[in-house]
Each structure stands twice: as structure tokens, then as C-alpha cells.
Amino acid sequence: MDAYLSREAYQTFEALSLISPSSNSEGLLIGHKRGHRYFVENVFPSQRSAIHSPQKYFDLNQLFDGKLIGFFSFKPDEKRIKKILAPFAFGKLYLKVYFTSRKEITIKSFIIDYDDKFFLSPIRLKDYKKE
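^ that's the sequence the OP posted. Answer follows.
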């Protein structure tokens, strides 16, 4: 299993880093899953309540025609991560996004998995620059 980050999605992360590099932003990943690959086509920054509320997530997913495939957080802490480890998020993609002092982006990718408790299972991430 792996994930692919499109140019548009990567550019959105770059733009968010330019606007507020010290931000603790969160949001949703828009795309689709084909076989064992998640394709992140775009990113939707949102308020925390949309990330942690199943009802808001389902409402937004309907608005985006069922294309919400996961979540992202900039510089996430354990408290935030625990809130996303819930039944409605099972099987979704989760990206931890970090900005370095040189304005570079580091992204770690995970699947929200379950085995007696919810946890993040690491997967490979490819982006348009590496193809």
C-alpha cells in the first residue's frame, strides 16, 4: 500500500507554508483509491471541528462527491492524533506535514488501522516530483 501526492496537493501544502509557516493547520485530503494506492488530488484546509467530527466529515464527504480519502495535520501532536484515531477514520490516509527551516516540506504518510485499538500504520509516499 502507498500514496501518491499530486502536484496540486503539494502546491497547496507549499502555499499554506508560505502563508503561515508556524501554523498548526489541519484539513482533508481529496482524491481516490485505486487498488493499493491512494491518489491525493487536492487538499482542503479546514477547522479542527471538521476533522474530529464524524458528522461534519460525512457532510463534507457528500459535498465532495465521496472523494475524501483522509486527513492531514501540520506539526501534529499526540493529542491531535488520538482524536483522529476513531471508527469513522478507519482505512483513511493520514499525512503528517512538517516544514524545515529551509522552507522544505517533509511529509510522513500513514493509514489509520485497527487491531484491538486504532493506530497509524506507515506507508510509502510518492509525489509528482519523484515520478
